[in-house]
Each structure stands twice: as C-alpha cells, then as structure tokens.
Amino acid sequence: MLLEVDELCVNYGRIEAIRNISFTVREGEVVTLIGANGAGKTTTMKTVSGLRPVRQGTVRFQGEDITSMPAHERPVLGIAQSPEGRGCFVGMTVIENLDMGAYARPDRKSPRINEDRDRVFGLFPRLAERRSQVAGTMSGGEQQMLAIGRALMANPKLLLLDEPSMGLAPKLIQQIFDIITEINEQGTTVLLVEQNAAQALKRAHRAYILETGEIVREGTGDELANDPAVKASYLGGDV
Amino acid sequence: MDLLLTHFWELTITGLAIGAVYSLVALGYTLVYGVLRLINFAHSEVFMWGSFAAVWVLMAAGAGKASGLGLAGYLILGLVAAMAVSAIVALLLEFVAYRPLRKRNSPPLIALISAIGASFTLSELMGLRDKPLKWFNASGLQDYLGRPRENLPFPLQVETKRLFYVFNYHVSNIDVIVLVSAIVMMVILDQFIKRSRLGRGIRAVAQDPEAAALMGVNRDRVIRLTFLIGGLMAGAAAMMYLLKIGVTRYNAGFILGVKAFTAAVLGGIGNLRGALLGGFILGVAENYGSALFGSNWKDVVAFVLLVVILLFRPTGLLGESLGKARA
Ligand SMILES: Nc1ncnc2c1ncn2[C@@H]1O[C@H](COP(=O)(O)OP(=O)(O)OP(=O)(O)O)[C@@H](O)[C@H]1O
Ligand SMILES: [Mg+2]
C-alpha cells in the first residue's frame, strides 16, 4: 500500500471540512476523488501533502506514519503535488520553476535532472518554447502545464494532481489526461482530483466519491462511471 | 543652485558612498519583508550593534593612524567583527522576538509591536552599557565603553588620500573603499539569490510559501537565512558608516534605519535590486537637496522624495504589486 488514509478529520477553525474519511492508493494505480464544489477534495490533497494540519486520524505513506510530518519533508519521501490554482512561482522563469520541482531530490545535481526536464518539455512542447519566460506573464493554461511539469520534476512516487485540467482548452484537456495515463504507465502512482468526472473515471483504476466531507461511494472507475446515481449527479447524465 | 553646480561631482560621489550604506541596510528590510511580510523595525539596531563591535575590536587591536597593509588588516578585522556581531544579533532577534509569535500564528500586527519593542530593547541595552560595570566593579573597561549616551569615536584613522579625479572632484580613498566593497558585496548577494539553491528557496518562499513547502523548501530555515544575510549586510554597512562618519552611538541606528527603510520602500519593498537602487538614489538626492536648500533640510528632502515617488509609483521604483513582491 503506497498511501493509507485512516479516519481522517480536518477542520478550518470550527468548520469540519473532512469527516472520518478513509481511503487507500496502491502502488501503480490512478485513483480519483470526485465530488461537488466544497466537498473537501482540495482539503484532502493538502492534508496528504502536509499543508493542512490533521485534527484526527492518520496518514501513512509506504507504511510510515506521516500524519504530523511537516510539508517540506514530504517531497523527499516521493510525494509531489500540483496544487489547485497552479501556484507557479510568478517571478521565476519556466526553467527556474521546473528546477524548483527538483529542489528536494537527492540526485538534483546529476544529469538525470536534464533528462527529466527534457521529458517534461517533450510532454509540453509549449513550455520548451517559453523556457526563459517569467511564469507570471504566461497564460493560465500555460501556467497549469508548468505546475504539472514542475511536480513531475520531483520524480515522485505519488503524484497529487488537483484539477489539472482547470482552465485548459478541450483539446489540451484530452492531452493532459493522456499524459496522466502515460506517466502512470511509466510507473508513477497518481491521486487525481477532477471536475471532469467522466474523463477521470475513464482513466482511473479506482475512485472515491466525496460528499460534504465524507466518502459516500467507492469502486472501480468503470463501476462508478456506469452507476446511475453517479451518472445523474456527476456526469450530467451521459458519458 | 551654484553650490549644486560647482560641487556636482563631489555631491554625487559622496552621496553614492553614503547611499551604499543605506542600500546594504535596506537589503535586510527588504529580504525579511519578502519572506515574512514583516517590517523588521529592530533591523536598525542590528546595524548599530555591528558598529559598536567594529569600534571595540579595533580599540582592542590598538588601531590608530594606519595606511597600507596595516590599514587593510584593520579594515578586514573591523568588517569581520561587525558582520559577525550583526549576524548574531539578527539571528537572536528572529529567535526571541519573531519565531515564538510565528509558531502561535499570531496576527501581523502583533509581530510589528514585537519588532518595535525589540528595537527599543536593543537600543537601550547599548545606551545603558555602563550599568553592569558597576555591579562587577570592572572599571578597567571604562575606556572601551565611553559615555553610554554620547558618541563613541571610531579609533581607526584613515589618512585621506586623493586618488583620482572625476571631472572636478578629487575622489578620496575612503569613497573608493566604501563604494568598491559595497558593490562587491551587492553583486555577490545578488548572484547568490539568483543562482544558488538556497537563494531560489528564498525567492520561492517570498513568492508562494505554500508552493515552496510543496517543493521541499523549509520555510523556517529560509527565514533564518534572510535574517543572517540581512545581519551580515548591516554589519558591513556599519563598518562603512564608521569610515565615513567616524563615530557611533546607542541610537545611531534610528535615523539610518529610517532612511534605509525609506530606500527599501522607494525601490519597491520585497525587491532586492530595488533596495540597492533606492539606497543610492536616496544618498545622492539628499546631497543635492542639502546643496540646494541648506544642510538642515537634508532629511526632509529624503522624505519629500519618497512621498513624490510613491504618488506616481505606489509600489516603488522596481516593485510589483505588494501581494507578489519579488525577492
Ligand atoms: N481556508 C479555509 N478556511 C475556511 N474554510 C475553508 C478553507 N478552505 C476550504 N474551506 C472549506 O472547506 C470545505 C472544503 O473545501 P475544499 O477546498 O476542500 O473543496 P473542494 O472539494 O476542493 O471544492 P472545489 O471543487 O470547489 O475545489 C468547503 O466548505 C470550504 O468552504
Ligand atoms: Mg478544490
């Protein structure tokens, strides 16, 4: 088991954003969290990456209890997140942003970094064209690609993607999902949060459905994609 | 007007030299602001403590009139002492006055009060430095301490040499020493922030603390590093200040700190190069102002300049919008 979340509760002050959720991610999987706005998806992601303190419950990574480990120590274990709303370093160039992705890597001085950067440029040719541009002056979609590329630069075991398709043109959305499948096939485990539930379920091995801070359904991607209730609530009726 | 025209180059070059001191102190304000969004009001006292360290070390070394190799030795000794003590004071300040508040997530206003309190404390500790003497009966130190509320003279006397002309101004060795060493330090720091891994960490925290944590940047370490760098630069500035001004005192940090802070705001707070530019502009403008309106107006000129520039560029000369100020 790569990631085990057990009876997790997370609060914002008095507001209970997450109540008693438990889920797992196995090595090599793509797992997706589906839910309406405000269901607690981003909060879950931030808790796994360490940005939100836990009120109750545990988070285990490769069997190790990381519940109270500070966020900045988790990339070393192999956890990388592309945050919701991108979070690019606006004053840094594309190259500098990508290098920040490799900040915590023990092999950051080795030539592997250049190979990984070339891999990111291969996945997102647009980033290669703009390599010296300051991130703050790039379009929203370009910054989204940069945020994903930056997370890949960490060469993570577990990649957390919070709405990677947000703000992208339809053709690019397709491409992003293809890229997710591709990096998963290359061996990276992915935990994915998406508004685009149809695509996410199609690509995911397993999925969890969050409603107001609680997990209400789980199953394989196919199961949930064909479930009438899920269809009605999250897929707009047709797949 | 005549005064300004006839002494234009002298005013410019001496203004740049004192501006270099402002710039180096301004760096400390701007770096800490960048990562903490906090005006570290006690930074002026970090500078002041460095100046005392340089005076005392040079007294102990028996510095007096010096030239050539001996002078170089004294300069380096004073510089190292000032930088070391300022850095230590800056780190202690962070540890005692800011970190406990940060750990408790206290609102920014509380940290500001803590900063003002720390500033008074550090200044008064120096202003009351004769008191412990009475407890310990250690009157042998009297010469070192001087009179706590008066000026303490810088023992090193650099024989002024005129080196070369810039138009009609005969540039002195002190101007050259101050300007060259300040610029060398600024270039090193600028490259460190731009190119080194830790420098990138500082910029990352300044631009987006959460994303920086996701990259594995330890924010506490970055904060300590900015206090360390700010302290080192303030110490260097203190040594240069002593060379130019020749005395220090327990409240020497006050006016200088206000000016350096002004320089940081002028250049766009949070922006490293802005702080450097702001310091130089302020030093030169002050000199021009005092030539035009009389030296009593010197300090007023600095602030009028600040207000005018902020009217037209509210974020300072090189500043972004405050929310995403670049370090
Ligand atoms: N900083 C915060 N302070 C207070 N409440 C918050 C904060 N962030 C999120 N919440 C609340 O926590 C709940 C879960 O929010 P979260 O961002 O996890 O939702 P989400 O599922 O990611 O939604 P979306 O699809 O809109 O991104 C919401 O009710 C939200 O209002
Ligand atoms: Mg969200």
General description of the model:
Chain A has helices spanning 41-49, 74-77, 94-101, 112-123, 125-129, 140-153, 170-185, 197-203, 221-225, 228-234, and strands at residues 3-12, 15-25, 30-35, 56-61, 64-65, 79-82, 158-162, 189-193, 206-211, 214-220. Chain A is an alpha/beta fold. Chain A is globular. The model of chain A has no long low-confidence stretch (mean pLDDT 93). Chain B is mainly alpha-helical. Chain B has one domain (2-129, 163-324): ABC transporter involved in vitamin B12 uptake, BtuC (Orthogonal Bundle), CATH 1.10.3470. Helix content of chain B is 73%, strand content 5%. Chain B contains 14 helices and 6 strands. In chain B, the strands form 3 sheets. Chain B has a two-stranded parallel ribbon with strand order 1-3. In chain B, strands 2-6 form a two-stranded antiparallel ribbon. A two-stranded antiparallel sheet of chain B has the order 4-5. In chain B, a hairpin with a 2-residue loop joins strand 4 (162-166) and strand 5. In chain B, helix 2 (8-36) runs parallel beside helix 8. In chain B, 49% of the residues are buried. The complex binds adenosine-5'-triphosphate and magnesium ion. The site of magnesium ion has 3 residues of chain A, from helix 1.
What key attributes describe this structure?
heterodimer; A: 239 residues; alpha/beta; Rossmann fold; 6-stranded mixed β-sheet; 4-stranded antiparallel β-sheet; 10 strands; globular; B: 327 residues; mainly alpha; ABC transporter involved in vitamin B12 uptake, BtuC; two-stranded parallel ribbon; two-stranded antiparallel sheet; 14 helices; disordered C terminus; binds adenosine-5'-triphosphate; binds magnesium ion
Q: Per CATH, what is the topology of chain B?
A: ABC transporter involved in vitamin B12 uptake, BtuC
What is the averaged pLDDT score of chain B? 91
Order of helices and strands of chain A: EEEHEEHEHHHHEHEHEEHH
Q: What is the CATH class of chain B?
A: Mainly Alpha
- Helical content of chain B stands at over 70%
**How many β strands of chain A by DSSP?**
10
Mean pLDDT of chain A: 93
User: In sequence order, what are the helices and strands of chain B, one letter per element?
Assistant: HHHEHHHHEEEEHHHHEHHH
Alpha carbon gyration radius of chain A: 17 Å
Proportion in β-strands of chain A: 25-35%
Number of strands of chain B: 6
